[in-house]
Each structure stands twice: as structure tokens, then as C-alpha cells.
Amino acid sequence: MTTQVMKQAIRQRIIADREQLTVAERVCLSRAIAERIANLNVYRTANTVLAYMSFGAEFSTEEWVQQALRDGKSVLLPKVNRATKELDIYRVTNLRTDLAPGQWNIREPLVERCAKINSLQELDFILLPGIAFGCDGARLGYGGGFYDKLLARIKDANQGLCPALVAGAFTIQLVEGLPQEATDHKVEWVVTENETIQCVSDLPLGK
């Protein structure tokens, strides 16, 4: 079985498991995850954070993003650039007025309202989406490679260093032995509703 086939099988299984959670369960678990992330020292000491707006049955990030704005963080959000097939980054200040549904109906920054960020050196903290995560920091995304490409750009801009890489996920998204490829980037922390896991693997990125 190829790595891609294995990844797709895990994606399908975890997405199905995630969608079995009721809306009320997801709200409760997401709140617990958001609180744990907000208590991380790497978050509390960060000035500029890159977040994402969740969709579907993902861990709901909205409460955490609102918290980051209230905490006075400089909050950045991605927008899919269909021409380059990469993520462009924008600063947002108000989730109600600065966002609109974009590709895959995910809320994205409105370019006419938000400042585009061209320098990736000011980032201190990145909250990464994903379908499954390992306790070793392995991350399985949706298959588009958007974040792996973004992290490679950030690594280049920072001479090999990268901001704190954190993932929020439900416990059911933890998978042992996730298949990984050379272009895959690992996270440093995986935060679930029950625990904060500091991943102690040979991270290709990190401070």
C-alpha cells in the first residue's frame, strides 16, 4: 500500500469519526481545546499569531481567534491564492466584518479590508489545521499541501527557524504511526480536550 493510499484511508476514517460527534459535543470539546491553547506559554508570549477559520466538523477555532484578538495579539489568517495554489496571509481585526466565505466555503480575509502580510518573519505562533495528528508531532492534512508549502516559505524567510507550531484536535484525531513524507512538517504541540502533548521528535522545523 502506497503512502498516499494509506493517508487517504486514514483521512476517510478520521473524518467519519469526527462527524459522529454531535454539534453540542464539538462545541464543548472545542471550548476545552481553545482554553488549553490559550494557556500555552508559547501563545501567551506571542505577539503575532497565524490562525485559521475552521469548517465542517473540525475543532472550532472561532472562540480561540476571538480570544487572540481580545488578548491584543496581531492576528493573521490565510486566503487561498488560486493562481499560485499557495496561501496568502492577511491581518484581521474583526471577524464579523473582515471575512467572507472563500474556497470550500471556508471564511477568508476580504482583500479590500485586510492588509496583506508579505514578511513572514514576524510570526511567533501558528495554529495548524489537520485531519489527524501523532504524539510525535506528525500531521496529516487534507492533501492540498498548502500548509507544508507555507511552512517551507516561513523556514526560508527565517533561515531555518520557525514559529511555535501548534495543533488543536479532538482526541479521536490522534493516530499512532501516521505515514509521513519528506515534504511533511511536524507540529511541536498537539492540544486535545484532555491533554497538551509536547512532541519530542526530531522536528524539521522549530526553535
Write a structural description.
With 207 residues, the protein is α/β, with parallel strands linked by helices. It has a single domain, classed as NagB/RpiA/CoA transferase-like (Rossmann fold). It contains 6 helices and 12 strands. The chain has helices spanning 3-19, 23-38, 41-44, 62-70, 95-98, 146-157; strands at 48-50, 74-81, 86-92, 99-101, 107-109, 115-117, 125-128, 132-133, 139-140, 164-168, 189-191, 196-198.
Give a brief rundown of this model.
The chain is built from six helices and twelve strands.
User: What's the pLDDT, averaged over the residues?
Assistant: 91
Gyration radius (Cα, Å) is: 16 Å
What coarse outline follows from CA principal-axis ratios?
globular
CATH class: Alpha Beta
- The portion of residues assigned to helices is 25-40%
H/E topology pattern: HHHEHEEHEEEEEEHEEE
How many domain units?
1
What would CATH call the homologous superfamily?
Answer: NagB/RpiA/CoA transferase-like
What's the oligomerization state?
single chain
List keywords for this structure.
Rossmann fold, 22% strand, globular, disordered C terminus, 207 residues, alpha/beta, 8-stranded mixed beta sheet, two-stranded antiparallel sheet, 12 strands, 30% helix
Secondary structure elements and their pairing?
Layout: H1 3-19, H2 23-38, H3 41-44, E1 48-50, H4 62-70, E2 74-81, E3 86-92, H5 95-98, E4 99-101, E5 107-109, E6 115-117, E7 125-128, E8 132-133, E9 139-140, H6 146-157, E10 164-168, E11 189-191, E12 196-198
Parallel strand pairs: 1-2, 1-7, 7-10, 10-11
Antiparallel strand pairs: 2-3, 3-6, 4-5, 8-9, 11-12
Helix pairs in contact: 2-4
